[in-house]
Amino acid sequence: MAWNTEETRRRLKEAAVREFAATGLSGTRIESIAARAGINKERIYNYFGSKEKLFSLVLADELARIAAAVPLEMITSAGIGEFAGACFDYHVQHPELVRLLHWEALEFTERRVPDEDVRREHYQQKVAALAAAQRSGTLAAEPAAADAVFMILALCAWWVAVPQVARMIAGTPHPGAPEMAARRAAVALAAERMVVAPSPR
């Protein structure tokens, strides 16, 4: 029977996401990824070259997924509040992305990430979209577009990024649907208040 290369790659990347999210780049072992996927570890080297390249690839894939799930067009079509709310929803459903970014920060604090130029372009598209909305008057001119993008992304992710802090502040160790809906609404409201231009009186 022919070996299904694409299926093998998919299984290895899914296993890598979980392993890297749990233990980071330095803490993850190739053997652990292979064991989780049920595939010989040599195929990781054959397909991806190294653990570092695999980490960069799975993080790039996860960033592409959120970009597809929460497109930039939402900033103008649905409003900045709904864009922030949709980002919040995505992080709640896919907490691995925030964890991967945290591990990346620890590994690459003082050096460039492997695909930094591509990633920079990804984020600059968000900045440009928000800046265009500022120029059109849809959004307030301040804060600056880059600052606003960074703060909105932080708003969307921080509940998931530091659940222990959320537990201590909100007093809800196991938040249910009502609590999560309230958090989403608060994120959307904060994003709107941060950048939506006030209505003329």
Structure description:
The chain has 201 residues and is an all-alpha fold. It has two domains: 1-49, Homeodomain-like (Arc Repressor Mutant, subunit A, Orthogonal Bundle); 58-195, Tetracycline Repressor, domain 2 (Orthogonal Bundle), CATH 1.10.357. The chain has eleven helices and no strands. It has helices spanning 5-27, 30-37, 42-48, 51-69, 74-77, 80-93, 96-107, 116-136, 145-161, 163-170, 177-195. Helix 1 (5-27) packs antiparallel against helix 2 (30-37), helix 6 (80-93) runs antiparallel to helix 11 (177-195) and helix 9 packs antiparallel against helix 11 (177-195). The mean pLDDT is 91.
Quick recap of the structure?
This protein is an all-alpha fold and about 200 residues long.
Structural class: mainly alpha
For the largest beta-sheet, the strand count, sense and barrel status come to:
none
Number of strand segments: 0
Based on the coordinates given, report the CATH architecture of the largest domain.
Orthogonal Bundle
* CATH-defined fold name of the largest domain: Tetracycline Repressor, domain 2
Work out the helix count.
11
Number of domains: 2
CATH superfamily of the largest domain: Tetracycline Repressor, domain 2
Rg, Cα atoms, Å = 19 Å
Give the secondary structure arrangement, pairings included.
Elements: H1 5-27, H2 30-37, H3 42-48, H4 51-69, H5 74-77, H6 80-93, H7 96-107, H8 116-136, H9 145-161, H10 163-170, H11 177-195
Helix pairs in contact: 1-2, 1-4, 1-7, 6-9, 6-11, 8-9, 9-11
